[in-house]
Amino acid sequence: MSRHKNTQAGPSQRQLRVGEQLKHIIAETLQRGSLQHPDLGNVAMLTVTEVRPSPDMRQATAYVVSLLDQDIQAAIHALNEESHVFQKEIGRQMSMKFTPRIAFKPDDSFENSQRINQLLDEIKDPE
User: Fold this and answer.
1) Rounded to an integer, what distance in angstroms lies between the CA atom of residue 32 and that of residue 105?
2) Which of 16, 21, 48, 55 counts the most CB atoms within 10 A of its CB?
3) What is the CATH number for 64?
């Protein structure tokens, strides 16, 4: 058995578990409506789809999608400006050596999957 660290392609079990806990805390904070930014008027229609912590757990990326046709870029910018609120709540609810810094990004996976489905439909049904 080697003592060298395996280079894994995916996240570790701990990263997955912490990511789910972070997702839950961020979603609770959004639902509670404790954010004061003016661009977050309809924050209830934002959904956190995934949170990916870094291997050292000092940073995490939260992927957000809007259920309405609102400007997701403005919402992402506002969430990044209010990230200290999320970090404070994470520090209060989780006992970790470091409280991860949260960076918000738009989740494009739904649009990408729709585009792929559309392309597959075009291949199946050539007109």
Assistant:
1) 21
2) 48
3) 3.30.300.20
